[in-house]
């Protein structure tokens, strides 16, 4: 084993209250200015810990990095044995399970990893990989030892109940676990609310309902109180379902659990209707939301088409990312213009939105506009008094772009200069779209997420988020899904497809395009460092 590096050395976090190094020397609180720290050799490969991007004033624990041949990089997730090296293992009970034992190679090979980038050139380095999700031959928990809990945090999303159901049923059916607690009302439920016992019977039908049977909340993340509660209740597997904020909270819980040297696996299941979680292909509930949005767009189209100069405006969710609006528009084919946060637009003058509306009305007699809630916020702030309010989790509260835009359009066409009579209907289905139960494909997806999370926790992995990367489920370090937010890349082909389907102006000047291209570079060339990985919209 290599010795630890000399100063500047990151502060060790494995020390217990007496200052002794209770934990392994592999894990550090990365508050140093080093970009990476060489660590002891593991599986014959050099292991490195690297600094995450700063989030506020906090530095986050970063992945264990392993390097292999041909530029291969594994961004590994923590394992309980990183700080509890002598944990015993047990044979995976799945090998005696009649349903699974027939599957050839059911267990995942320990060395299997999933490539983050699959479009490569002949001489491209292999680059970033994540540990493949799935059941392992050896587990680190005996079935009757497991005491699991599930919590849901942040906004609602179709499929929450399905994930809860499948964690309960998966733990029970696959691993014979019976002690499963539901934490009510989000993070604060750990210390301020009741818990409910979850059984396969009590969750049997819940996937048919929208929302979350556990309740949810924003704010109220008190790491110490939460970990005290986990410790006091003897919980040893924590399944945390939520968006970017929730995963940051899960990361803080993981760090504290590790600091206390507890045998507790922390598994994150990414949730966000906005589909803005980095690295993973898609978040659950997104397909359902896009499907549900069709009903609102259809209504807007019917209304607009039935009157002279009819305009239907539909506002959809998407705080920082316009995925719902983009996919709902592409799916519908009735939309004339889609406005998203990533693509700035302007109203007045040549090439502006109002000019386009007039043109489209003259051509077709009606039009439909889909606007994501985070679009045009810069314009709103200029023309309205900015409120600068935040929700309990610290997310900025947005001004209502749908109402604002509708009013601007009405004002424009009723002005003395224009005097064109229009008939505008504004539809705001935002909460209807996320309060519905998940559709069939999301249900299957939720099941896979739940199973992957369970297999990971049983196998002793911790501090991970689960999700599909290029179609294969992988264990992803928390910092990789929290350091950046996935956005629509407006210079990618998917946005070009949208522009060509709606025939709307791009509202982009030549300089905008140049800037966007610069930001997105390089696309398929080798990436300069792991934090600059370009977040794509899955274009083909
Ligand atoms: N940086 C952070 N550290 C610890 N906890 C956090 C952090 N950010 C958010 N949280 C906690 O995570 C929970 C959910 O956060 P938030 O309300 O931002 O929703 P989210 O998980 O991002 O989901 P979504 O935005 O998709 O609705 C809250 O209880 C909040 O206190
Ligand atoms: O009204 P709430 O519950 O705070 O949620 C609204 C936000 O939640 C999201 O749906 C993300 O979960 C955003 O699109 C939206 O801005
Ligand atoms: Mg969020």
UniProtKB/TrEMBL annotation:
- Pfam families from the UniProt entry: PFK
Where is the site described as Important for substrate specificity found in this chain?
A: 245
**Pathway, per UniProt?**
Carbohydrate degradation; glycolysis; D-glyceraldehyde 3-phosphate and glycerone phosphate from D-glucose: step 3/4
User: What is the reaction catalyzed?
Assistant: beta-D-fructose 6-phosphate + ATP = beta-D-fructose 1,6-bisphosphate + ADP + H(+)
Residues bound to Mg(2+) are 244
Q: Does the keyword Metal-binding apply?
A: yes
| GO MF annotations, alphabetized | 6-phosphofructokinase activity; ATP binding; metal ion binding
Required cofactors, per record? Mg(2+)
Does GTP-binding show up as a keyword for this record?
Answer: no
Q: Where is the composition biased (Basic and acidic residues)?
A: 528-540
Task: Identify the enzyme class.
Answer: transferase
Q: How is its activity regulated?
A: Allosterically activated by AMP.
Function as written in the Swiss-Prot or TrEMBL entry: Catalyzes the phosphorylation of D-fructose 6-phosphate to fructose 1,6-bisphosphate by ATP, the first committing step of glycolysis.
PANTHER family on file: ATP-DEPENDENT 6-PHOSPHOFRUCTOKINASE 1
Similarity field: Belongs to the phosphofructokinase type A (PFKA) family. PPi-dependent PFK group II subfamily. Atypical ATP-dependent clade 'X' sub-subfamily.
Name it. Answer: ATP-dependent 6-phosphofructokinase
Q: Which organism is it from?
A: Musa acuminata subsp. malaccensis (Wild banana)
Q: Tell me the lineage of the source organism.
A: Eukaryota, Viridiplantae, Streptophyta, Embryophyta, Tracheophyta
Q: By which gene is this protein encoded?
A: PFK
């Amino acid at each position: 084993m290599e010795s630890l590096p000399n100063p500047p050395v990151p502060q060790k976090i494995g020390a217990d209250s007496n200052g002794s190094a209770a934990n392994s020397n592999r894990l550090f609180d990365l508050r140093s200015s080093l970009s990476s720290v060489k660590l002891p050799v593991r599986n014959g490969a050099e292991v490195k810990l690297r600094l995450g991007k700063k989030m506020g004033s906090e530095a986050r624990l970063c992945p264990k990095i392993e390097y292999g041949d041909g530029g291969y990089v594994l961004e590994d997730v923590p394992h309980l044995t990183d700080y509890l090296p002598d944990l015993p293992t047990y044979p995976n009970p799945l090998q005696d399970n009649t349903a699974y034992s027939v599957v050839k190679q059911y267990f995942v090979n320990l060395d299997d990893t999933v490539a983050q980038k699959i479009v490569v050139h002949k001489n491209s380095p292999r680059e970033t990989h994540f540990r493949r999700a799935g059941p392992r031959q050896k587990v680190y928990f005996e079935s009757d030892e497991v005491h699991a809990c599930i919590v849901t945090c942040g906004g609602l999303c179709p499929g929450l109940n399905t994930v809860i159901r499948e964690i309960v049923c998966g733990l029970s059916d696959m691993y014979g676990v019976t002690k499963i607690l539901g934490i009510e009302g989000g993070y604060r439920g750990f210390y301020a609310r009741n818990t409910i016992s979850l059984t396969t019977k009590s969750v049997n039908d819940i996937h048919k309902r929208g929302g979350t049977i556990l309740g949810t909340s924003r704010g109220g993340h008190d790491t110490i109180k939460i970990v005290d509660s986990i410790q006091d209740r003897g919980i040893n597997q924590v399944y945390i379902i939520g968006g970017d904020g929730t995963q940051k909270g899960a990361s803080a819980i993981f760090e504290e659990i590790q600091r206390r040297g507890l045998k507790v696996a922390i598994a994150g299941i990414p949730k966000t209707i906005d589909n803005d979680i980095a690295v993973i292909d898609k978040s659950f509930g997104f397909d359902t939301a896009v499907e549900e949005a069709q009903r609102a767009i259809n209504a807007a189209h019917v209304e607009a088409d039935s009157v002279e100069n009819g305009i239907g405006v539909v506002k959809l969710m998407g705080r920082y990312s316009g995925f719902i609006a983009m996919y709902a528009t592409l799916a519908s084919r009735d939309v004339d213009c889609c406005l998203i946060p990533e693509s700035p637009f302007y109203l007045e003058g040549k090439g502006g939105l109002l000019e386009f509306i007039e043109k489209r009305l003259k051509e077709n007699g009606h039009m439909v506009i889909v606007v994501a809630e985070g679009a045009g916020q810069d314009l709103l702030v200029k023309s309205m008094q900015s409120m600068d309010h935040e929700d309990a989790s610290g997310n900025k509260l947005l001004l209502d772009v749908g109402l604002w835009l509708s009013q601007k359009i009405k004002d424009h066409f009723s002005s003395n200069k224009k005097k064109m009579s229009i008939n505008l209907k504004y539809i705001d289905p935002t909460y209807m779209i996320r309060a519905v139960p998940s559709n069939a494909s999301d249900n299957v997806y939720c099941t896979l997420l739940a199973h992957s999370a369970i297999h990971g926790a049983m196998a002793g992995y911790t501090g991970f988020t689960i999700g599909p990367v290029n179609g294969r489920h992988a264990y992803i370090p928390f910092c990789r899904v929290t350091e950046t937010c996935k956005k629509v890349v407006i210079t990618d082909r998917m946005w070009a497809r949208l522009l060509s389907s709606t025939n709307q102006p791009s509202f982009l000047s030549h300089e905008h395009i140049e800037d966007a291209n610069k930001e997105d570079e390089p696309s398929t060339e080798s990436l300069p460092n792991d934090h600059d990985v370009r977040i794509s919209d899955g274009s083909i």
